[in-house]
Amino acid sequence: MDYTALRRYSRQVSVGGVLIGGSSAVSVQTMTSKPAGDIDGTIEQIYQAAGEGCDIVRVAIPSLKDVAYFQEVCKISPIPVVGDIHFDARIAVAAIEAGAAKIRINPGNMENWEAINQILDAAKKAGVPIRIGVNGGSVKHKNKDDSRGMEEAVVEEALEYASRFEDYGFSDIVISAKISDALSTIRVNREIAARCDYPLHIGVTEAGVEEDAMLKSAIGIGGLLADGIGDTIRLSFTGEPVREVIAGKRLLRAAGILRDGVEIISCPTCGRCRISDMAGLAREVKQRLEGIKLPIKVAVMGCEVNGPGEAEGADIGVAGSGSGVLLFAKGEKLGVYSRAEAMDRLMVIVESMG
């Protein structure tokens, strides 16, 4: 998939030097989970996330007194920090002055529009973008059991807030409309994408523990990315922030959007499989190629039918055969070897590609 050609056009904003929207790469975000006053714990989580490729991190600021802690985090963090604020506009203004690269607010739970305009004034003066975050559970919708009505309310609220920001003269806007249901998330963001050019932060909120959240996000986020919708993502689940980043990167690779390492394809096996421990071989290949930053495709196949036949598009691969392990590249057979020798030869060839 050529994501550049497919991607929806959106205006571009800068979050501490990380560009969102336009032709910039889809960025990956997470949110710290330590208490606001735990600076060391928060910084440790941020460095772990950054080490796995996180581009932007969000930090909750529950009260005005917590802004001082947030300021220290902003000074130390290796990546841009977003202040997450609810209810109190004074916290948002203070967070901007403390060094936030972006702030996230839900105008629907702020005191009034006079207070919100103070946030807009501060953000405009500092050159800080604002993410308008609207969730399915927070919209002013009478019947919470009416999912379609709730979806319409999310769309209308998000666009109404953005329109009021624009009317006040503020346009550095990112919209985030999240729902805990994957299909609702897709429908809502498709509608918003069709009606504006703001960059969109996408994700399925309250998605559950990692194994469940991965599936929901693969549908919700993956479905939108397949439509060319989405400028920055977060795979949110109950667990450590660094795991969200790892999952986000994996999703982008699976979608063909991120090509920053080796892609391994392997067959599901069938009665023709010539390798007794296919899963073990696939995992061995994955482990030995870990950390190699080459945009190549490596195939691990159980028989000659799948490799090099069906896997002829792979840059290199191994397949089971009657007399050993077949090594092939671009559909051409390179020889049959023992398992250990085939693996060593595969590594030599991969390393020569770099």
Cα Rg: 24 Å
In percent, how much strand structure appears in the residues? 15-25%
Assembly of the depicted chains:
single chain
Low-confidence stretches: none
**Secondary-structure element order, N to C:** HEEEHEHEHEHEHEHEHEHEHEHEEEH
Largest sheet: 8 strands, parallel, barrel
Which strands sit side by side, in order, in the main sheet?
3-4-5-6-7-8-9-10
Mean pLDDT rating: 92
Helical region count? 12
Structural class: alpha/beta
Instruction: Give the overall shape.
Output: elongated
How many beta strands in the DSSP annotation?
15
**Helix proportion:** 40-55%
**Distance between the amino and carboxyl termini:** 24 Å
Could you name the key traits of this structure?
about 350 residues, alpha/beta, 5-stranded mixed sheet, 12 helices, elongated
Structure overview:
The protein is α/β, with parallel strands linked by helices. The protein is 42% helix and 19% strand. The chain has 12 helices and 15 strands. The strands form 3 sheets. An 8-stranded parallel beta barrel has the order 3-4-5-6-7-8-9-10, surrounded by 6 helices. A 5-stranded mixed beta sheet has the order 11-12-13-14-15. It has a two-stranded antiparallel sheet with strand order 1-2. Helix 6 (147-167) links the parallel strand 7 and strand 8. Helix 6 (147-167) runs parallel beside helix 7 and helix 7 runs parallel beside helix 8.
Describe this structure in a few short sentences.
This protein is an alpha/beta fold and 354 residues long. 42% of the residues lie in helices and 19% in strands. The strands form three sheets. Strands 3-4-5-6-7-8-9-10 form an eight-stranded parallel barrel, surrounded by six helices.
